[in-house]
Amino acid sequence: MALPLNLPQLNRNWLMLAGAVGLGVLAMLLSHKMLSDRMAQIDREAHTHQTLVKVVVAKQDLPRGTKISPEGFAVRAIPTEYLHASALHPDQFAQYVGQRLAAGLKQGEPVLELHLESNSLVFSSTLAKGNRALTTEVDEVNSISGMLRPSDHIDLMVTARGTVSNATETTFPLMSNVEVLATGQIIRKRDGTNQPKTYTTITLSVSPEDAERIVVAKNSGKLTAVLRNPEDERANSTTALNIDDLMPKKVKKGLAVQYIVGGRS
What we know:
Blueprint: H1 9-48, E1 52-58, E2 73-79, H2 90-93, E3 132-137, E4 153-160, E5 170-183, E6 201-206, H3 208-220, E7 221-228, E8 241-242, H4 243-246
Antiparallel strand pairs: 1-2, 3-6, 4-5, 4-7, 5-6, 5-8
């Protein structure tokens, strides 16, 4: 005669609990897979009916003033309905290499024309806080023979006489590493050429105090612009000079040249 199998009540409850948990986990996994498959299907259907356009985006967060180079940017395809009209396309990127950002970018954000140096909708927004835009006249020499461009950096030299009587005309450095905002009415490079441009003024980004110094110097003497590498931020350490400093050193007093005539001195 078979004996009835009597499982302990505690073990039977644990088995039921484990089975319920297993079924719950299985249901969760199946639901997650179904949801993932559905999302992938929706994404495929969305891209099937969308036109994608390749644009230039930032690889990482880029602050204002960052030099534009291929290393900091990438190409990404974006649906046309989400694309800004002024987004930068890959075939336009080369002409802006070497320039600087007029506004910061977040990682993955498309580059717009208003992000490019000195191309903001409002010119005053390109100024650093606290700075002023000062326009001054230039001649053929001070425009570096027409080769000076927006975003170049220059040193300003002054040639003037002091207010004391019989003052000697002296040349000395006034300011170092001044940013050029515009040449004439050109506020950014529109092509990649180095062809000379004709203009009679340049606009500089300076502090209010430096703007005053430039006005005083311009009204009292002559300003000369000296082009410098924008990566070089060292101050101009040259000293004041006048024509006497450039003249050959005088013969020491008392030193004479002996002439011998007819064999006798």
